[in-house]
Structures are given as structure tokens and as C-alpha cells.
User: Which sequence fits this backbone?
């Protein structure tokens, strides 16, 4: 089991069934390659505009206007969107590293429709973040003389939550990967085993929980009030909760000795 990207529902959960054209779950890396490249480009454009005054490309500005970017959006801090885009890029970069060096994928398959949607998911998320930036023509509108003068307490809290959640997700992925490796780090099988350690003490799918916490940390970085991003968080919550429930049900049916105190997704609750 590994963390499913938020666009993938039950198709890769243990014990799920599917039909139709499929692609190997080993293609997960394709999603993160696209995310690192695309969101890296968006971050570069935003950085150029913020610090060098370089206007956005005309096609990108037109796309942002179509998605609701507002001129001189009052009360919206550019620093919030900048940090969230940095977080999104770092998250994708780490997940790409894990695909190649940590995770051990089974023979599970993903429906080709979800694979195709996965190729554009992080493009949509990245452009959603950038559309929250207040604009001044094709340039970014910055309130105040210095970008970092916009720093608020929720930026620090969001950053701490992002680092904390990312570290725990990485630990959980290492635990899952090691279940299929020997002490020398060589993959010896692709069978399911009961994981122990870290947040596995509380829930069956702590990597899914950490994914949700990462998206919540971005909502916090936006200052709690960004409705658009809370809609993204809501989608991630229901998607990851469904995957966690299916995984939990699979583990309990497969292993008689599975810890009874573990919840599926939320510690002590669900």
C-alpha cells in the first residue's frame, strides 16, 4: 500500500476490483514528473514577477483571468500563494523521489481514465493556487514595500504543519516499503503485511491521513479563509477517507491478528 494521489479513488486500494483498460500503478511517477515540471514552471514565473518585475506570459495571464484571478484583490497576501506553491512543488518532488527510491509497487492497476486525469491533476491544482494571486495587469500586485513584510502567524503555522505532516508521511512510506525488502534493502516480494510504527499505531492508513494534513497545512497558509482551497481540501478528505476505509477493511479481512484498536483514517474516531 502506498499513498494514492488525490485524484485516484478506490481503484488502487487493496482488495478493490476494476474492469476496462488499465495502466500499472508503477506509472505513479509520471504524475509527479509532470507536477515537478509544471508547478516548477509556475513557481519560476511567480518568482520572476515578484522579485524581478517580469510579467506573466500572455497565455498564462489569460488562463488565470479565465479561472478567476482578480486585479488588486484586497486582503489577499501574495506570500500565501507563493508559499503554497512552494509546498506543492516540494511535496511533488518528495513523492517523485519516493516513487523511485522508497515505495515498492505491487501488481495493482489503475483505470486508464484515472491515469489520464492524473496527468492533468497537479496542473489543475497548481494553476488553482496561482489564480489566488492578486494581479496588477500581467504583474503580481504586492501590498507593502516588501513581500516578506506580509509574513503572518498563520504562514509560520502552515509551514510547521507542512513539514510535520511530510516527515510523517515519508516515515510511513519507508515502513511500507521496508515490508517488502530485506535488511540489505533488496525487494524480495510484493505481498501485503501488517505495518507497525509511527502513526500506524493509531490508524491503518496514516499516509492517507498525512496527505490530508498536507493539504490542510496549505489551507492554513492561505489564512484559513480561502474558500477555493477548502473545496480542494474537502475533495481530498473524502477521497483519502474512502481509500483508507477500503484498505482498513482489506487488512482486517486478510489478517486475523490485525490490531483491533486501529481505526481506518482518523485516530480514535474513524
Assistant:
Amino acid at each position: 500500500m502506498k499513498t494514492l494521489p488525490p485524484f485516484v479513488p478506490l481503484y488502487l486500494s487493496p482488495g478493490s476490483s476494476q474492469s476496462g483498460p488499465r495502466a500499472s500503478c508503477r506509472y505513479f511517477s509520471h504524475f509527479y514528473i509532470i507536477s515537478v515540471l509544471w508547478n516548477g514552471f509556475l513557481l519560476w514565473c511567480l518568482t520572476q514577477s515578484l522579485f524581478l518585475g517580469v510579467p506573466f506570459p500572455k497565455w498564462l495571464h489569460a488562463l488565470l483571468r479565465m479561472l478567476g484571478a482578480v486585479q488588486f484583490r484586497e486582503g489577499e497576501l501574495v506570500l500565501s500563494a507563493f508559499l503554497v506553491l512552494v509546498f506543492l512543488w516540494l511535496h511533488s518532488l518528495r513523492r517523485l523521489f519516493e516513487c523511485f527510491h522508497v515505495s515498492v509497487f505491487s501488481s495493482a492497476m489503475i483505470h486508464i481514465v484515472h491515469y489520464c486525469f492524473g496527468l492533468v491533476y497537479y496542473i489543475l491544482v497548481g494553476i488553482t493556487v496561482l489564480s489566488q494571486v492578486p494581479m496588477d495587469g500581467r504583474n503580481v500586485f504586492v501590498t507593502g514595500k516588501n513581500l516578506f513584510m506580509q509574513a503572518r502567524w498563520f504562514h509560520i503555522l502552515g509551514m510547521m504543519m507542512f513539514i510535520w505532516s511530510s516527515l510523517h508521511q515519508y516515515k510511513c512510506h519507508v515502513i511500507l516499503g521496508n515490508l517488502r525488502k530485506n535488511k540489505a534493502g533488496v525487494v524480495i516480494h510484493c505481498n501485503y503485511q501488517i505495518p507497525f510504527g509511527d502513526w500506524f499505531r493509531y490508524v491503518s492508513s496514516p499516509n492517507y491521513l498525512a496527505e490530508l494534513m498536507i493539504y490542510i497545512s496549505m489551507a492554513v497558509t492561505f489564512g484559513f479563509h480561502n474558500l477555493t482551497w477548502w473545496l480542494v481540501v474537502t475533495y481530498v478528505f473524502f477521497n483519502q477517507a474512502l481509500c483508507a476505509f477500503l484498505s482498513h477493511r482489506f487488512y482486517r479481512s486478510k489478517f486475523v491478528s490485525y490490531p483491533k484498536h486501529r481505526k481506518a483514517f482518523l485516530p480514535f474516531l474513524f
About this structure: Helices lie at 28-52, 58-66, 78-101, 112-130, 153-178, 206-221, 227-254. The beta strands are 22-24, 109-111, 135-136, 139-140.
